[in-house]
């Protein structure tokens, strides 16, 4: 009999197998430049997946995501809503560090994004929290700027997507740190509603795979809830040439 415990173990095993499959990747030039491949870390059965941009210097040295100052801030934000690293999974759009922490380029993103998509498929979280421009634009398939997306909540491919600013961008700006704190509070409120809905339906994470997440059940989560198909997101106009650049077809 295949129960929930088996299912959780199977997901862990799948993620491990996937790591072993891709850890020596050199499909783009960053593979030659990295010290360590940074797969991501956390709970393979997490309901919340946080996605950043790319490893920085410290991440490249240690082979783990978010280990520098931005990582400390992220730990603090998670702790503020009663979560730790083992309750979530943290990954990046790119698995290898761009030199001098420059922005990822479109070729690198297009070459690497399949790995992130596979991680999403295996982990199958309820909520994807995109941190910063690159993960937000990739997951929401838009070229809209992060400042217009932050503070809103989206449904995309059966997942709830919550875009927030990248913690590194908030390190030395108290007002941005405050915004992040608000966003994490909201993330927790939405998580509480979503996980309660899942509990009512009796669906496990894997059993729910490929289906639409339940709609938020109360006003807390409905406040500011938007869908990519609704009127407000139809205003997000992605020119066709931009879509191609972003590999969104
Ligand atoms: S960044 Fe991604 S595609 Fe490029 S070498 Fe690293 S793992 Fe491979």
Q: What share of the residues lie within helices? A: 40-55%
Whole-number total of structural domains: 1
Order of helices and strands: HHEEHHEHEHHEEHHHHH
CATH architecture heading: 3-Layer(aba) Sandwich
Strand content: 5-15%
Average pLDDT, rounded to a whole number, is: 83
SS content category: alpha/beta
Morphology: globular
Count of individual helical segments: 12
Describe this structure in words.
Helices cover 47% and strands 10% of the residues. It is built from twelve helices and six strands. The N and C termini lie far apart (40 Å). The relative contact order is 0.14.
Topology diagram in text:
Blueprint: H1 4-22, H2 30-33, E1 41-42, E2 48-52, H3 57-62, H4 69-80, E3 89-92, H5 106-123, E4 127-131, H6 133-140, H7 146-149, E5 154-156, E6 159-164, H8 167-170, H9 174-201, H10 219-222, H11 231-234, H12 240-245
Bound molecules: iron/sulfur cluster.
List keywords for this structure.
249 residues, alpha/beta, Uracil-DNA Glycosylase, subunit E, 6-stranded mixed sheet, 12 helices, disordered C terminus, binds iron/sulfur cluster
How would you briefly describe this protein structure?
With 249 residues, the chain is of the alpha/beta class. The protein has helices at 4-22, 30-33, 57-62, 69-80, 106-123, 133-140, 146-149, 167-170, 174-201, 219-222, 231-234, 240-245; strands at residues 41-42, 48-52, 89-92, 127-131, 154-156, 159-164.
